[in-house]
Structures are given as C-alpha cells and as structure tokens.
Design brief:
single chain, alpha+beta, FAD/NAD(P)-binding domain, Glucose Oxidase, domain 3, 14 strands, elongated, oxidoreductase activity, acting on CH-OH group of donors, Glucose-methanol-choline oxidoreductase N-terminal domain-containing protein, flavoprotein, GMC_OxRdtase, flavin adenine dinucleotide binding
C-alpha cells in the first residue's frame, strides 16, 4: 500500500495472466544482487531520478542499485611446463579415473587446485594491517582449440596469442582484485518486468584498483621462479598480447595494458541494496527496507561491501541469519 508504505503482497504471472498473492506478515525479496534492485525500483523504491525517468510513482526514495561491487578478474597469466603434469595425457587419465571412481582432477570445482590470498603491497611487514586484496587462482587447465569457438574471442587475439599455445602443457592463473574501491550501478531499462536491467560494473573506475591488480600480478609472478616451479619447467607465456605489443613484455606498462584490455567481472555481484544506517543504505540491520513496513531483502545485495572470497558462503549465511530474524520477529508481533 503506497499511503502507509506497507508491503502487502506480490504480483506474479501464471499462464500469461497476472496473479496477486496477499501476505499476512511480510514479503521477503531474494532475487539476487541484480533482480532485487530491479524489483524494488519497479515497485517505487529507488533513487528519485531513476523513478522519475520511468514515470514510476515514488513510494520510498532510497539509493537502490547505486553501490554494485564485484571482483575483478585478470586471466592473463598462462604458464607452460616441460613436465606434462596436466596436459592431454593426464587429462585422459583423469577422465578415466572420474568415470571409474568419481575422484580426481575432474571433481575440483572450477578446476582451481590452489588459491592464494595476499596483499598487493610489496612490503608485507608485521606492522601492515591491511587485509589481503588480491587472490591468485591456479587452474588445472590450458587453452586449446575449443577457445576458438567462443564468440567473445577476437580473431586477432586467437591467431596471435592463443593459437601458438595449442599442444603445449601448462596451467592457467587468474589474478583477482577482491577488495575493489570501484562501484557500479543497476538501472531499469524500462518498466517491463521481463526486460533485463542495465548493468554497469564500472570496473577499474579508480586508478587505485588498476594499480593494485597490476601490483598483485607482478608479485605473484615471482612464484614461477621458485624451485618447485622450475622443477616442472614452468615459464610464463611470453608471446605478446597483440594489443599491448608496444610495451616490453611483463613490464609494468605491459601488464597495465593487458589488464585494461582483458579484465572482466568475477560474477560475484553484491551490494546493490546495502545494509546500514548511513545515507547510502537501503536495509537496516534486520534486513528490513528503510521506511517500508513488511518488506525484507535477503540476498547478496544487502552486503555493505564485498567479501574477499567467493560470495556463495556469505549468501548462505545471510539466508540462515535472515531466517532466524524472521522467526524471532514473528514471535514478538501479532498479525
């Protein structure tokens, strides 16, 4: 109800017709960090300008969709090895092992066998209190001919950068900026609830984010000069990325260019309806939407800031804690 700012139900489509379900207690929105802000704005809860742009009568003016965060991924550290530890022959053995016992390499989620969280700063002295802001993900896979089928790979990059790798042994490494300063947005495309919203990750908006992921990349590259890596003949792929060929390979300028050309969102979107009491908050400490009775948001959108690890575990915790709070509040309220 608009007059008393109370959520009383939901509208959904069934067999092409809109249906309304009324609630006695409250509506709990769990549509994710993209879907939840979209539905809030379609319901008149959002930034004044956004609602006015789409002629939506405002119910509650809040900064919905204005603080999107995501991890930033750079997948440019490809390492070749002389020891075919994870090449085609090993892959065939792994397939056979998985078919027989459901164990081995193919059971590793995302093929990431090792993770390292570290600081992008060179000086990691005992006095440094910063949280790790960079993650290294070592993946037991190597580019092959299948990459050429991707509609997202530039033909020039495929021919000059990836194609020379085919047939070699090695592994890939992702460097992730897990504590970015940059914030993106979610905007409505129109008032059609079936239309996808406009998403702007706004990655690397702050120079600081770019500098930190470059620092982190140059830092983790030192791992490939260790005794263990030398034992398997590990070498960072030294074929120049075609759109950064004007720079000395693996110089700071080269890595900066490489990151700018290829970095992508980590699909760990959050923070589009953040919790708090500050002016940028959308929900309170009990996940209730500020100024609206009977409406909670319970998903990754309520995070005030992104976590360094993958968001999956954090979202499970938000759901579990949120459910507890719903039950607690229900015991104290008569409906």
């Amino acid at each position: 109800r608009r007059l008393d700012k109370k959520a009383t139900g939901v509208i959904f489509a069934k067999d092409g017709k809109n249906e309304i379900v009324r609630v006695k207690r409250e509506v709990i929105l769990c549509a994710g960090a993209i879907g939840s802000p979209k539905l809030l704005m379609l319901s008149g809860i959002g930034p004044q300008e956004e609602l006015a742009r789409h002629s939506i009568d405002p119910v509650q003016v809040l900064p919905v969709g204005q603080a999107l965060q995501d991890h930033i991924i750079f997948l440019g550290l490809v390492v070749t090895t002389t020891n075919d530890m994870i090449g085609l022959s090993n892959l065939n053995k792994s397939i056979e092992e998985y078919n027989k016992t459901r164990t081995g390499l193919l059971t590793i989620p995302g093929a990431f066998e090792a993770l390292l969280f570290t600081s992008s700063k060179e000086d990691e002295s005992a006095e440094t209190e910063d949280y790790p802001d960079v993650e290294l993900e070592l993946a037991s896979m190597f580019p092959n001919e299948l990459i050429g089928r991707s509609p997202f790979i530039d033909p020039v990059i495929y021919e000059k950068y990836y194609k020379p790798m085919f047939g070699k042994a090695g592994f890939m490494n992702a460097v992730a900026m897990v504590q970015p300063k940059s914030r993106g947005t979610v905007h409505l495309t129109n008032t059609n609830p079936y239309e996808r919203p406009q998403i702007n990750p706004n990655m690397l908006y702050y120079t600081e984010d770019l500098e930190r992921i470059v620092n982190g990349t140059l830092k983790v590259m030192k791992l490939f000069n260790t005794t263990a890596m030398k034992a398997i003949g590990a070498e960072v792929w030294n074929e120049k990325f075609p759109y950064c060929s004007q720079f000395d390979i693996w110089s700071r300028d080269y890595v900066t260019c490489f990151v700018q050309q290829t970095a992508f969102p980590g699909q760990h979107v959050c923070c589009t309806a953040p919790m708090g009491t500050h002016k940028d908050a959308v929900v309170d400490a009990r996940l209730k939407v500020h100024g609206i009775e009977g409406l909670r948001v319970m998903d990754a959108s309520v995070m005030p800031a992104i976590v360094s690890g993958n968001t999956y575990a954090a979202v499970l915790m938000i759901g579990a804690k949120g459910a507890d709070m719903v039950l607690e509040d229900a015991k104290q309220t008569r409906y």
